[in-house]
Amino acid sequence: xHNYTLSQIxxxxxATLDGDGxxxxxxxxxxxxxxxxxxxxxxxxxxxxxxxxxxxGAVILSAADAEYYQGNKLIVANPYVCYAKLxxxxxxxxxxxxxxxxxSAVVHPDATVASTAAIAANAVIEAGAVIGDNAQIGANCFxxxxxKIGNGTKLWANVSVYHDVEIGSDCLFQSSSVIGSDGFxxxxxxxxxxxxxxxxxxxxxxxxxxxxxxxVDRGAIDDTIIHSNVIIDNQxxxxxxxxxxxxxxxxxxxxxxxxxxxxxxxxIAGLVGINGHIDICDGVILTGMSMVTKAITKPGIYxxxxxxxxxxxxxxxxxxxxxxxxxxxRLKALETLTxxxxxxx
Length: 345
Description:
With about 350 residues, the chain is α/β, with parallel strands linked by helices. The protein is built from 5 helices and 39 strands. The longest helix has 21 residues, at about 325-345. It is flat.
């Protein structure tokens, strides 16, 4: 583990250092648990009270919070972004594969693997596949025919990438994600399901991250497309022919049905369900458990999931909900009666 002085860290972050520049830092920690060789950060003012008791060797914070802390501090415009950058510097996450090709890996003679790539144990790479420079293919991964993995892309163990998939550079795929599986395409012939072969591909840009157990289906005819700088959390389902614009973030367990287009720089919270064959414009924020059934054409925040309540209150509200048709009829009758009385007067 490499230590860095506060002066070195300040230069890296473009921060204003107030304190001992020679102080050495080995680790990032929370305000509550930090020790003298650790650096903490304050990005949320509700934790400001912890500044007085923290044992951190230094704290990253904003100018507005600097007056509340008397120890070594790095003053920045955005503490959370600076924390992210510093975490990359101090990252101790291991590689998913050691350099070279493990003896147990099965690499087809017609595959192309860069000399700097790393292929872990029991990985399978099929004919026509191309693995770029410094790519890491974890244990038990499957790379299908004619699939391309870009430079510096990292696959953790048990990732399955089907045939004819194109993945850009510096991407990260967590364990058990599946890329290029068949979309849910069937025709019904008198009660019998007839499978429709999924002939499209999956095209993924650069710096895309996909979480554990997430699935991205291949297109039915055209391609499923995920543009650069998209982040997708664990257990998400991206159906066939979906297109996701650059800079969009999608949290866990969200489901996007087929042929839907998500714009740029959207934020989609967890457990959101998005209907198929609709467009969502750039800059949309969907809060948790929202159900989107029609197109969204204006940027903004949209919600539909109901906050929890006591069971007694929930039952009472559901009873009212079931009575809405009757209440509508009664309200309309009252409106008619009111108008009639006003006319008579």
